[in-house]
């Protein structure tokens, strides 16, 4: 049992970090257990959002006010957008051949 | 310079004076932060009433003007000169039977109009009606408006999908494609007044136009204004870009299955959005509430209604644009034009040659 | 009866944290993929509100504009272009779902224990009154200009790649 839990208010660094960890964990549970490829992509987006919350929490409570965490958050959003676009393009391409979006649909090297 | 309405004269800024008086009264008797909360709540109540009145006037103005331009009278029976037509429309829509198709996904079907209407109404909280007369003045006012303008797309997709009707799904996808295509030139073009003013706060942008309105900041101001109007008309699904809800082509597009209250909400959203686009055009390009002699909020209303008149004029004059022409215009004309204009404005600013703005 | 700002801010944080967790769980448990997408919209919008409570107003607006306004539309288009006749059961049956949930809970527990027992150099914040837009903009174009350029290149490559992969032959 941790010896010093953070107070209920004001919001401290630990609150933000725990929220980020929670979102990451829930996203991971979804990404590991769902069969629809698009649902897996959505769960991955939730994981990325958990990471961005962690960065923004650090930026808020950092010793200097240069907002490095927020700058990095912008990069994470950029990469997430690129990954969602390419991921959905792949899902649509597989759907065209296999008529399904199950994650284990693309299991042969032919066709 | 022509003399401005002096701030000390009560009629020049009655709302500001009343707001100041209420705030002073409340601060004397209540501790912080309650006075500002109560004053903001009163401002929200006022703006909400204003939305109702302005939408009524827009419905009347549009139908009368379009009627005159088509050589006929518009509605002139309900109320003096037909001004209460919107109330008659609202009563008719509210007393209709709300039909939910059997194939529809009920929860999503009922939530979709809300997702379309709520962002349109939220934009009204940052519109600067006068100096210090907005519900709130955000540091990122322009970005807030753009972000809220991106939300109705989700509502339209929800409406199309949940209707359980092939035409609605098609209409929803076409509407969403149109909205996201025109979002990009709009975001880029809105950056031009932000560059010229050096701030994203709407009040700051208006105050930076005291010397010269941004629409007159040659040579890119007028181009930016025209691009903003074109993207704005496409973003609110107005004619000539109203293909998603074209009554003669795809039944009624994404709101085919909506009757009664749902349709009334889409209708309200369209008019609230077009007023918001006119208000943004006024704030960003036409100098907001700046002007000689008359009180500032009168100037704001005059300029915004002038822009709205131009929107109605365009609607009654131009034929509906075909879908591929629409996409061509967005991606091959508006987007390159917006990109080049923003780039050249930034170059111009860095060389300190923009007329009428202070050198940085 | 003075309501301190900290209290209001904490209330906002807890409300939107709860909404985002509910949304995230809703993605996994929803009936039908379109409803999962709507729960994701709820999650992303709540996370945008959380950024605002953490002092990142610019980032909150960008989150709504980019994530909710663009990425979600992309995902919903993907859903509409891949209509499924039958909702598929999860891989491996209930055993897999239970294992995934166990792994997630274990990870969360370990992370929480580490977070609450560490000594953070500064864990309560001073009030931030910086103009976040200017600071982020300056940072992007001075200290972080290389990642910025690489990110734009990445977006260009991703855009071309997505068009090439998804296009009809």
Describe the structure in your own words.
Chain A has 111 residues and is mainly α. Chain A has helices at residues 13-33, 37-60, 68-98. In chain B, helix 2 (34-69) crosses helix 10, helix 5 (141-150) packs antiparallel against helix 7 and helix 6 (152-162) packs antiparallel against helix 7 (166-197). Chain C is mostly helical. Helices cover 76% and strands 0% of the residues of chain C. In chain C, helix 1 (5-29) packs antiparallel against helix 2 (33-53) and helix 2 (33-53) packs antiparallel against helix 3. Classes of the chains: A mainly alpha (111), B mainly alpha (360), C mainly alpha (169). The interface between A and C is large, with 81 and 89 residues.
- Summed over residues and divided by their number, the pLDDT of chain B gives a mean of 86
Distance between the termini of chain C: 69 Å
Number of strands of chain B: 0
What's the count of strands of chain C? Answer: 0
Radius of gyration of chain B, in angstroms, nearest whole number: 21 Å
Radius of gyration of chain C in whole Å, from Cα? 20 Å
Topology order of chain B in helix (H) and strand (E) letters: HHHHHHHHHHHH
Please write the string of helix (H) and strand (E) elements of chain C.
HHHHHH
Compute the separation of the termini of chain B in Å: 23 Å
Please, what is the average pLDDT of chain C? 88
User: Helix tally of chain B?
Assistant: 12
Number of helical runs of chain C?
Answer: 6
């Amino acid at each position: 049992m941790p010896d010093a839990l953070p107070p209920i208010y004001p919001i401290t660094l630990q609150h933000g970090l725990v929220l980020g960890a929670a979102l990451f964990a829930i996203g991971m549970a979804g990404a590991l257990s769902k069969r629809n490829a698009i649902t897996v992509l959505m769960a991955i987006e939730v994981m990325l959002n958990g990471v961005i919350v962690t960065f923004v929490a650090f930026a808020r409570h950092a010793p200097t006010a240069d907002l490095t965490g927020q700058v990095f958050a912008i990069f994470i959003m950029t990469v997430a957008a690129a990954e969602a676009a390419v991921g959905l393009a792949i899902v649509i391409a597989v759907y065209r051949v296999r008529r399904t979006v199950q994650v284990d649909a693309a299991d042969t090297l032919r066709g | 310079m022509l003399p401005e309405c002096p701030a000390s004269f009560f009629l020049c800024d009655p709302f500001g004076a009343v707001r100041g008086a209420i705030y002073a009264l409340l601060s004397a008797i209540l501790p912080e932060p309650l006075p500002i909360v109560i004053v903001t709540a009163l401002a929200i109540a006022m703006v909400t009433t204003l939305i109702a009145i302005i939408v009524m006037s827009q419905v009347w103005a549009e139908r009368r003007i379009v009627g005159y331009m088509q050589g006929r009278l518009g509605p002139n029976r309900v109320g003096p000169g037909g001004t209460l037509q919107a109330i008659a429309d609202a009563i008719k829509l509210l007393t209709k039977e709300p039909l939910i198709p059997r194939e529809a996904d009920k929860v999503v079907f009922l939530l979709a109009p809300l997702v379309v209407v709520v962002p349109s109404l939220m934009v009204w909280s940052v519109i600067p009606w006068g100096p210090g007369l907005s519900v709130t003045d955000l540091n990122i006012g322009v970005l807030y408006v753009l972000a809220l303008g991106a939300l109705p797309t989700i509502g339209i997709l929800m409406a199309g999908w949940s209707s359980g009707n092939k035409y609605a799904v098609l209409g929803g996808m076409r509407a969403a494609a149109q909205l996201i295509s025109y979002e990009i030139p709009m975001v880029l073009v809105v950056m031009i007044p932000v560059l010229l003013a050096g701030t994203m706060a709407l009040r700051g942008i208006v105050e930076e136009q005291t010397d010269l309105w941004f629409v007159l900041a040659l040579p890119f101001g007028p181009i930016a204004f025209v691009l903003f109007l074109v993207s704005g008309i496409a973003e609110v699904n107005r004619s000539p870009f109203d293909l998603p809800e074209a009554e003669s082509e795809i039944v009624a597009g994404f709101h085919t299955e909506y009757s009664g209250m749902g349709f009334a909400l889409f209708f309200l959203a369209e008019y609230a959005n077009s007023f918001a686009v006119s208000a943004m055009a006024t704030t960003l390009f036409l100098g907001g509430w700046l002007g000689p002699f008359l009180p500032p909020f009168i100037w704001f209303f005059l300029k915004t209604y002038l822009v709205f008149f131009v929107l109605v004029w365009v609607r009654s004059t131009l034929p509906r644009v075909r879908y591929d022409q629409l996409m061509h215009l967005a991606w091959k004309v508006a987007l390159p034009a917006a990109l080049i204009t923003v780039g050249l404005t930034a170059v111009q600013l860095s060389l300190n040659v923009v007329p009428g703005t202070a050198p940085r | 009866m003075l309501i301190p700002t900290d209290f209001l801010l904490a209330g906002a944080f807890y409300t939107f944290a709860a909404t985002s967790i509910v949304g995230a769980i809703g993605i996994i448990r929803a009936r039908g993929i379109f409803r999962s997408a709507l729960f994701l919209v709820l999650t992303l919008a709540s996370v945008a509100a959380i950024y605002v409570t953490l002092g990142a107003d610019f980032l909150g607006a960008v989150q709504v504009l980019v994530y909710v306004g663009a990425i979600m539309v992309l995902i919903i288009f993907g859903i509409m272009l891949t209509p499924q006749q039958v909702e598929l059961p999860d891989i491996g049956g209930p055993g897999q779902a239970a294992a995934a949930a166990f792994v997630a809970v274990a990870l969360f527990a370990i992370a929480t224990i580490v977070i609450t027992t560490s000594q953070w150099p500064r864990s309560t914040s001073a009030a931030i009154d910086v103009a976040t837009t200017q600071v982020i903009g300056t940072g992007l174009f001075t200290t972080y200009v290389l990642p910025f350029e690489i990110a734009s290149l990445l977006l260009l490559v991703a855009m071309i790649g997505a068009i090439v992969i998804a296009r009809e032959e």
